[in-house]
Amino acid sequence: MNKYNAIKQLELNRQEMNLSKESMEFILNICRAIKPERILEIGAFNGYSALNFSLVSKEVISLEVDEENFKLAEENLNKADCNNVKIIKGTALETIKTLNDKFDIILIDGRKSEYKNYLELSLKLLNKNGLIFVDNTISHKNRLKEFFDYLIKSNLYFKELNLGKGLMIISKDLSVYKGTKFYCNINT
Questions:
Q1: Which of 104, 80, 139, 119 is nearest to 27 (CA)?
Q2: Which residues of the chain have a pLDDT value below 70?
Q3: Is residue 153 within a helix (H) or strand (E), and if so which, with residue range?
Q4: What is the CATH number of the domain that holds 149?
Q5: For a Cys-Cys bond, which of 28, 87, 104, 182 suits 36, CB 3.0-4.6 Å?
Q6: What Rg, from alpha-carbon coordinates, does the chain have?
Q7: What is the C-alpha separation between 107 and 27, in angstroms, rounded?
Q8: Is the pTM of this model over 0.70?
Q9: Percent of the chain scored above 70 by pLDDT?
Q10: How many structural domains comprise the chain?
């Protein structure tokens, strides 16, 4: 089975924990424009996002703590002969600390209680012009107070988009946003 068929299969059997199709399409459109070399995904679940990212990036690192989800993602990635994705089993907070490379895109979609910590660690791995996407910022807003408090006090540029269950885009540098349709609405 090729990657496209594997993605279609997962979309036909969409799970609640998958990134919404509209959020995935938005991120993929950004990726097509900036052509990322490396993408980091925090929270692999069944491999849906990693498979999509494998179409637009040379290398994808996907982290998953849950044993069943790890096996499911690994199975889906293997079925699609997806050799540019590496899935790592373990806690994201510990695994991120072992990564030395920089990433152009980072997706945070793991344990909601750890979002602030994921963000802090991810910033160290983000390329200067990189982007961080955060899922579930609307649907889980009540569980993300610490994350939002940190974000508001930071020097980061961010925009919460009304896509899926809430998709946020974060950057260290405002110039990354220039020329995008949401540039005029970025928090400054």
A1: 104
A2: 14, 174-188
A3: helix 145-153
A4: 3.40.50.150
A5: 104
A6: 15
A7: 9
A8: yes
A9: 91
A10: 1
